[in-house]
Design goal:
This protein folds into 4 domains: 145 residues, 3-Layer(aba) Sandwich (Carbamate kinase), CATH 3.40.1160; 153 residues, 2-Layer Sandwich (VC0802-like), CATH 3.30.2130; 117 residues, Rossmann fold; 181 residues, 2-Layer Sandwich (Dihydrodipicolinate Reductase, domain 2), CATH 3.30.360. The chain is 42% helix and 21% strand. The chain contains 28 helices and 29 strands. The strands form 5 sheets. The protein has an 8-stranded mixed sheet, with helices on both faces. A 6-stranded antiparallel sheet has the order 13-14-12-15-17-16. Strands 20-19-18-21-22-23 form a 6-stranded mixed sheet. Helix 6 crosses helix 7 and helix 15 packs across helix 28. The relative contact order is 0.06. The structure holds nicotinamide-adenine-dinucleotide and L-homoserine (HSE). The site of L-homoserine has 11 residues, from helix 22. Homotetramer. In the N-terminal section; belongs to the aspartokinase family.
């Protein structure tokens, strides 16, 4: 025999009942089946609501009863041929009249005992089992509905009755022995020895099915719901959750205790005790394998089977010097909680014995605190036990899997995945069975933790990065194009999934938690009317609280740079070509680096020097491998080099500056390049990376333009002043050219001093031949003393800079 159980969603409409019929029919030997059904989906709640109305003396309960009647009669009309309808309708009306009489009684006396409520709720399953059995018969199946009376016998603990297995098993065995039909059995309901109707509590229909399966020693128990088996995590919260094909009873119990609602743990106990295989199946996708729960599932490679969570948790902590070495404390503590019916979900105690913490349902927190304080009143007065601490708004996330046993590294991976994403762990528990590792975290981090852990343990092959990009100018727009063009390859070839979640310019922003389509993100931002500031953008990032979040700043804004601190502190990595932060005051630079290290995230700004050239990483490699940097020197400005290579008698300074801007080499304000400030920032950043504590003011700059070309003020004035000066400059430049020399803006750092200066470079010098907007950087070190290590190449421009930013993003994935 096989017992099938169909829950409320599977029998919520006539169409669904026909699906159930197909499933039953698809089984090889129908007479070897027993079918347990729940009430039509949502009906139990509807009955409860109607009862409460009646109890309150609200006569609108009558309208609700009419709706209940209509629903059942409509099902009969849809499922049963007209010829047979009248007798079935009459029977259903007869049952419903009884329901109405009881409701009327509740209405009149305005009283609803649990006993009466159980009786009222039983109508849901009584009606569904009768109508479904008739629908089966209608379709040629030899079905019969079981009269719930004298079937499952319970005590009189109404609402959550306990089963008398001796009488129940006898009844079930007798029923099955003398019956040739396909039995359709109402789940959830039972009867006392004296004939009063009871209900079996939450998950009651699963329980009915498991009791029957155990009593008749069925060869299988199939639980049919609306999901394709137990998933690796709750699919509503973890989009990438996948079904678990096989698992052990103990894994299923652990996962369901920890919130996987697909089966209610105590209900499977009878099946478990007889080792009856349980299959979880989807009525709406019967072809899906579902989950098979057995005593000895096929061994799987993965140490973790699933990740579960419980929300609305409070952590109650008792601590104090009087607890150390004192026996009986735990007994009194748990005794006090037990007497008040407080369910303890998780327990931790450090070996110092100084404190015990328990995770409990938040609704029990006040009661629990009072009872424990009452129990330890004297010790608290004596000051040897502290006031009981309660921390609310927490959640428990748990890794479950029997293969975790004796597998080193699981806890390490768990903690580092949570830590990297800024999720603080308030308490930890792991039994010696190593079947479950549980962590108490803030409720607001629950979804992030589930997704982080799911990615770490199930999708370790694929890493999803959530990007928040600010600035869609020269570099930002090109970065979007590059990511859009490369995302599919990164996913296929390198298991990196890039999701653009937020994009902003200085006026508006767009967000999409599922990912903004990359190929049209700039247009979407252009069409957006949602006003945005950097502060609202950051608020949204924090509110979304996504794992592996990266903030990419493609602006030149100090205001944007000022939010790095907040983001890094919340474990969000920062990638930027914006030099403001790394070249701002030393304290900020250091603080950001320290914060990133402390939070286990990255602050990457490789493109601050030499755009896409590997300058900062080369310097860091030299230092980390033990080399000593003696001198750094070179051409660091793409704009300035382009200028000195391009200005001629025919192309004056102002024309070439405009060209450098148009080519995307120059800073948004070209005076930053022309004044040498951009180069000063770069040499400063390199000096700092060597460990030097320098400020921008410490970099000596010899500007090559007169002060009036560099002062702040309207751009018109700047252009005018530049044009006024350009003939003078051209005369000097031509003179120098005649001498076989050229101008180069050189920056150098040596012996703790940094400088930027215009130099006259002779033909033949390595700096002379650096063409176009290229950069060249020479590192003279202990190991590269005779011949410096040289990095040379394109040092500015949208493509190379965006590529460098992109590389930093990928570095985080790796
Ligand atoms: N262009 C290069 O070759 C190069 C090379 C290395 C580094 N960088 C750096 O890259 C950054 C971007 O340079 P770019 O050439 O793309 O400049 P850009 O002026 O073309 O783009 C900057 C964008 O940021 C936007 N922006 C400014 N403030 C903002 C705010 N508060 N919120 C949102 N958006 C804001 C601007 O509207 C603009 O669209 C600069 O910091 C620059 O120093 C550029
Ligand atoms: N404006 C900068 C961009 C690269 O940092 C330059 O011209 O070098």
């Amino acid at each position: 025999m096989v017992v099938l159980k169909f829950g409320g969603s599977s029998v919520s409409s006539p169409e669904n009942i026909l699906k159930v019929l197909d499933i039953v029919r698809s089984h090889a030997s129908i007479k070897q089946l027993a079918v347990v059904v729940s009430a039509f989906g949502g009906l139990t709640d509807h009955l409860l609501h109607t009862s409460r109305l009646a109890e309150r003396g609200d006569d609108s309960f009558k309208q609700e009863l009419i709706k209940i009647e209509d629903r059942h009669l409509a099902a009969i009309k849809d499922l049963i041929h007209a010829k047979r309808q009248s007798s079935i309708v009459a029977n259903v009306k007869f049952i419903l009249n009884e329901l109405e009489d009881i409701m009327q009684g509740v209405f009149l006396v305005k009283e609803l005992s649990q006993k009466t409520l159980d009786f009222i709720l039983s109508f849901g399953e009584r009606l569904s089992s009768y109508i479904i059995a008739e629908a089966f018969k209608e379709n040629g199946l030899p079905a019969a509905a079981v009269d719930y009376r004298n079937f499952i016998i319970t005590d009189n603990n109404f609402g959550n009755a306990r089963v008398n297995f001796e009488l129940t098993n006898q009844n079930i065995q007798n029923y099955f022995a003398g019956n040739e039909n396909l039995l359709v059995i109402p789940g959830f309901v039972g009867t006392t020895k004296h004939g009063a109707t009871t209900t079996l509590g939450r998950g009651g229909s699963d329980y009915t099915a498991a009791i029957i399966a155990a009593a008749i020693e069925a060869s299988g128990l199939e639980i049919w719901t609306d999901v394709s088996g137990m998933m690796t995590a709750d699919p509503r919260r973890v989009k990438n959750a996948i079904p678990i094909e096989e698992m052990s009873y103990e894994e299923a119990l652990e996962l369901s205790y920890f919130g996987a609602k697909i089966i209610y743990p105590p209900t499977i106990q009878p099946a478990l005790s007889r080792r009856i295989p349980i299959r979880l199946k989807n009525t709406f996708a019967p072809e899906a394998f579902g989950t098979l729960i057995t005593h000895s599932p096929r061994p799987s490679e993965a140490p973790v089977k699933g990740i579960s969570s419980i929300e609305q948790i409070s952590l109650l902590t008792i601590s104090g010097s009087g607890m150390v070495g004192a026996s009986g404390i735990a007994m009194r503590f748990f005794g006090a909680l037990g007497r008040k019916g407080v369910n303890v979900i998780l327990i931790t105690q450090a070996s110092s014995e100084h404190s015990i913490s328990v995770g409990i349902n938040q609704k029990d927190a006040t009661r629990a605190q009072q009872t424990v304080e009452e129990e330890f009143r004297l010790e608290m007065q004596a000051g040897i036990v502290d006031k009981v601490q309660i921390e609310n708004n927490l959640a428990i996330v748990a890794l479950v899997g029997s293969n975790m046993r004796n597998t080193p590294g699981i806890a390490g991976k768990l903690f580092s995945a949570l830590g990297r994403n800024g999720i603080n762990i308030s308490a930890i528990a792991q039994g010696t069975s190593e079947l479950n590792i549980s962590c108490v975290i803030q409720k607001k981090d629950e979804e992030k933790a589930l997704n982080t852990l799911h990615e770490s343990f199930f999708l370790s092959e694929t890493k999803t990065l959530h990007l928040f990009v600010v600035g869609t100018g020269t570099v930002g727009a090109t970065l979007m194009d590059q990511i859009s063009g490369q995302a599919a390859n990164l996913y296929k070839g390198h298991n990196i999934a890039l999701k653009l979640i937020g994009l902003s310019n200085s006026k508006t922003a767009i967000f999409n938690e599922a990912g903004i389509p990359l190929d049209s993100c700039k247009e979407a931002l252009g069409n957006s009317t949602q006003p945005s500031t950097i502060d609202t953008f950051v608020d949204k990032i924090l509110e979304l609280n996504l794992p592996n979040a990266i903030f990419v700043d493609c602006t030149a804004s100090a205001e944007v740079a000022s939010v790095y601190n907040t983001l890094l502190d919340k474990s969000i990595s920062v990638v930027t070509p914006n030099k403001i932060a790394a070249s701002g005051n030393y304290h900020t630079y250091k603080e950001l680096k320290t914060l990133a290290a402390k939070r286990g995230v990255k602050f990457l700004f490789e493109t601050n020097v030499g755009a896409g050239l590997p300058i900062i990483s080369t310097l860091n490699d030299l230092i980390r491998s033990g080399d000593t940097v003696l001198k750094i020197e070179g051409i660091f400005s793409g704009t300035m080099n382009y200028l000195f290579n391009t200005v001629s008698a025919d192309k004056k300074l102002s024309t070439v500056v405009q060209e450098a801007m148009d080519l995307g080499y120059a800073e948004p304000d070209p005076r930053i390049d022309l004044s040498g400030k951009d180069v000063a920032r770069k040499i400063l950043i390199l000096a700092r990376e060597t460990g030097e504590n320098l400020e921008l003011e410490d970099v000596a700059i010899k500007p090559f333009l007169p002060a009036n070309c560099l002062q702040d003020g309207p751009m018109d004035e700047f252009w005018q002043n530049l044009r006024d000066y350009e003939n003078t400059f051209e005369a000097q430049r031509a003179e120098l050219e005649n001498q076989g020399k050229g101008y180069r803006l050189i920056a150098a750092w040596e012996e703790g001093k940094a400088r930027v200066e215009l130099r006259e470079i002779e033909k033949g010098h390595p700096f002379y031949s650096v063409s176009g907007s290229d950069n060249i950087i020479l590192f003279t070190t202990e190991r590269y003393k005779v011949q410096p290590l040289i990095v040379k190449g394109s040092g500015a421009g949208a493509e190379v800079t965006a590529a460098g930013v992109f590389a930093d993003i990928i570095r985080i994935a790796n």
